[in-house]
Amino acid sequence: MRQKSSHLPVLLAEVLQGLSPQKGETVLDVTLGLGGHSASFLHAIGEQGHLIGMDADAENLEQAKTLLRDAAGEKTFYHCNFCEIPHMNLPLCDVVFADLGLSSPHLDTPSRGFSFRFQGPLDLRFDRTTGETAAELVEHSSEEQLRRLLRNYGEVQSAGALSAYMVLQKPKTTTALKECVEHVCGFRAKNVLPQVFQALRMAVNDELGSLRTLLQEGPALLQPGGRMGIISFHSLEDRMVKLAFRALSTPTINATTGAVTKKAPFVLLTKKGLVPTSQEIHANPRARSARLRLLQKTF
Ligand SMILES: C[S@@+](CC[C@H](N)C(=O)[O-])C[C@H]1O[C@@H](n2cnc3c(N)ncnc32)[C@H](O)[C@@H]1O
Known about the structure:
The protein is α/β, with parallel strands linked by helices. It has helices spanning 12-19, 36-45, 58-68, 104-108, 134-140, 143-154, 159-169, 174-185, 189-204, 207-217, 235-248, 278-283; strands spanning 26-29, 50-55, 74-79, 93-99, 222-232, 252-253, 260-262, 266-268, 291-297.
């Protein structure tokens, strides 16, 4: 059963100030979630504006549609992964926005399998209509594949011993996976569990692969003057965003003369990325690892 949860959009004030959506503009929100950020986008772009929203999670998408139903402005919704953007023939946009990762209902709904706090199937897919579950991934992975996945995506220190045990046990539920971690990690299990679930989630949803596509395609969808913002919650994701945005905003320089031979078509609006205030973290602890990076297309 889907449990009710209060929803606070992360870094909302910073997102609105940095992306500055204006009346009549077109905004693409590639991670609509529960529609929290998009409700404010719609308010800002008004009845002449156009919001294009997408989400891989059909249930979140429905919830967002309900929330945004009465807001003025044109709305177009897609149930899809944003890695499909290259095949979608989307219009040029004034704002492209992503708030990566999972949403509160994923963690709070036992049947989704995202949380070790509840008994549930080891699923962890954002989109339950396609792809393999985490249980299936574990079932057919070799010990070496699991070890690499746990190490690379979760920085799990006991990745070797844990992957060896998981290959034997083939956990099918959140509780069975929790027991594997407790068996291998003992008193350290409570610190390791979030890392293990995060690693499986990132693998099941190919989160870094999708982000790579977004970083290639998102900037190309911006009109001159358009702004792109990405909130990430993981250092691997943030590093990808930082490097991609930096490359797009770096002019080409003649190695001999040091003169600029080609201006960069983008400028960084944030040098280090914006993080939540202590008040926001207090009100919404799930915001604590968020970092927002912003980019603007100049010509
Ligand atoms: C952090 S929540 C977004 C919350 C939203 N900004 C709000 O205020 O309600 C992230 C959402 O992105 C979705 N998501 C994650 N990766 C995705 C992807 N590659 N393509 C489409 N949706 C994705 C998840 O299903 C989830 O609903």
